[in-house]
Specification:
single chain, alpha+beta, Immunoglobulin-like, five-stranded mixed β-sheet, 34% strand, binds dinuclear copper ion, metal-binding, NosZ/Cyto_c_oxidase_sub2, membrane, transmembrane helix, copper
Amino acid sequence: MHIHKYEKWWLTFGAAMLIAFLVIVGVSAFHGGTHPNNSKWTINYEKVDEIAPFDNPGVHKVEGKDWDYEVVLVASAFSYNPMEIEVPVGSKVRFIATTKDVVHGFEVAGTNINFMLEPGYVSEKITTVDKAGEYVIVCNEYCGTGHAMMYSTLKVVDTDDNSNSH
Ligand code: CUA
């Protein structure tokens, strides 16, 4: 069977694209830890303020768990509660977040902490913050007119600084 030269190029190009995209998906899933939110934790989004732990948003030190801190976060148009998150470098943090209204994003720029906040669902992530610095938290899901103004800060502070402040 004769295959035209250009036809061969296109077949090669198509096959190469397929392999390239599979590699990208594979690397981001298995190396980057990117995966869909499979949260089975649901919540009545109209009563978020009354339901624990969201009745007390903020950074909480915890004892006797596999992680050191819990960050309870409530998003709403167009802000995050708490406004600012501060945790010591090297600590293991469990982020627990939801939204009171529409879909928002929670992306800590420059890290792989990045999840979608959907009304009625609680998103979670347990991660170790191993690099000190100030990270910008942005909403990466278009949520309305104030979307671009919706941001917050994650401060990962040196343990020395932290002990000085207490
Ligand atoms: Cu919240 Cu965009």
